[in-house]
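dumping this here before i forget
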Amino acid sequence: MAGLGKYLTLCGLVLAGAIGATLADFKGKKMRVLATDVERGVASEFGATGIPMDMTQVIPALQRGQLDSVRSTSVVLAVLKFYAVAKYITLVEDTHIPDVAMMSKMFFDKLPADLQKTALDVGRSLERYMEDVVLRFDRRAISLWKSKGGEVIYLSDKDRQGFMARTAKIGDKVMGGDPQLAPMYNLLKEAAAKTRLSDFERGLGAGR
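structure:
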């Protein structure tokens, strides 16, 4: 496969339900997570119990008290009308969900050089456009949540930095410790370190 571009499709994860405004509030909570070692590890790091569950079962589980919260994105939660059963969302903003645009390398290799360049140029030009689209969708979802009577909670800078520091080691353990995943995981970490925003740049983009 030939890579044409990488796109941010969903913004940082949030927790909907009875969680609270500090990391200490996570303790003892039952949290719907994806069925991965990383997701379960994130929950347990803060004293919560990560429970994998089909998304179609989450709203009934929240209503029955089988779950206290669900780890997802603001866009997904707003579209599925979780505000009908969960007043609060806590924005953790610890990760993103990326997509990549791919083309058959056999097909790509048969294209003339000018069309290969066009395919690559278009794919990369869409990267920034898609980032803007996703950010608009995220802001729209937050506005919808508030308009339906919901409340949005932001972790303090101290708690968010603590969250990121404590969860970083989970990826290192789960993916960095897997012989098959470790080479790609380490490459991704190196790329992230090279392109990470400075504190100043991050401040320019801040604003809630």
